[in-house]
Amino acid sequence: MIKAKKSLGQNFLIDNNILEKIVTCTNIENKTVLEVGPGTGNLTNFILKKKPKELFVIEKDYELVDNLKDKFKNRLNIINEDILNIDETSLFKNKVIVFGNLPYNISTEILSKWIINLKDNFWFECLVLMFQKEVADRIIAEFNTSNYGRLSIICNWKLNIKKICDIKPEAFSPKPKIDSSLLFFYPKKNFVKINDPNNLEKVTRIFFNQRRKMLKKPFNQLFNGDQRILEKLKINLNLRPQNISLETYYKLVCEYENLIS
Question: Which long-range contacts (CB under 8 A, 24 or more apart) does 66-75 make?
Fold first, then answer.
């Protein structure tokens, strides 16, 4: 009997209806699939039933890796590594479909890493990922709402995102204390070109450092009160960070890159 490790944020998905819903989000037959955090292999089993071309799994826990080897033999490629240390862009020749019941304690770190490191030629076809519901709500939040913030802006830069469903604690073992949400991400065809994604991270961090304050202070910090930028992007400094649209933030980053180049 394998016990979930709290230190690794492990909650194993056991509801067959939810598992089936996850693998039918997109067609994976004869495709290369990556599963992040397969745990005891419940979702892995459902993925294999859909006949992917090949299946890679990334699992940090040595005990779970041994269990996966016993359970699935040579039906999958197991990478025994920390997901945060892996360069996915060099791992695959073709675009992959990614499934992940991500460890809740590092889920935003994983997603942010993937997005900040994204090249224009995406290494994945789509992402089907599980998050704490409150994190998912922040990812898909629209501007002028309280959940809107840095995570919303960074995630929506190059990706379209839709919620598939919410999932109750009873679907997991052990049961988490919160609800979860399943999100589906796929690449945008058109997005604002930013030279260095780290500048997106920096600009949003400065603006949302004091999210209840007006825009004047962070704007002056970055742009020294440049009126031309305010007029060009039609920004009212009496507003707060959550009142500025996604596109305006992306354009602000471009203006910042012009300033420092």
Answer: 67/2, 67/40, 67/41, 68/38, 68/41, 68/44, 71/41, 72/41, 72/44, 72/48, 75/48
Q: How confident is the model at residue 258 (pLDDT cuts 50, 70, 90)?
A: very high
- Specify whether 221 is located in the same domain as 174: no
Residue 63, number of CB atoms within 10 A of its CB:
11
167, 182 contact by CB (below 8 A): yes
Domain shared by 167 and 214, yes or no: no
Q: 15 with 42: CB under 8 angstroms?
A: no
The domain tally of the chain equals 2
Per residue in 121-157, pLDDT (tens digit) is 899 999 999 999 999 999 999 999 999 999 999 999 9
Q: Tokens 């204390």 sit at which residue? A: 177
| C-alpha atoms less than 13 angstroms from C-alpha of 171 in its C-beta half-sphere | 22
The answer to whether position 192 is within a domain reads: no
pLDDT in tens, 162-221: 999 999 999 998 788 899 999 999 999 999 999 999 999 999 999 999 888 999 999 999
User: Are both 181 and 201 inside the same structural domain?
Assistant: no
Q: Give the β-pairing of 77-79 and 54-58.
A: parallel
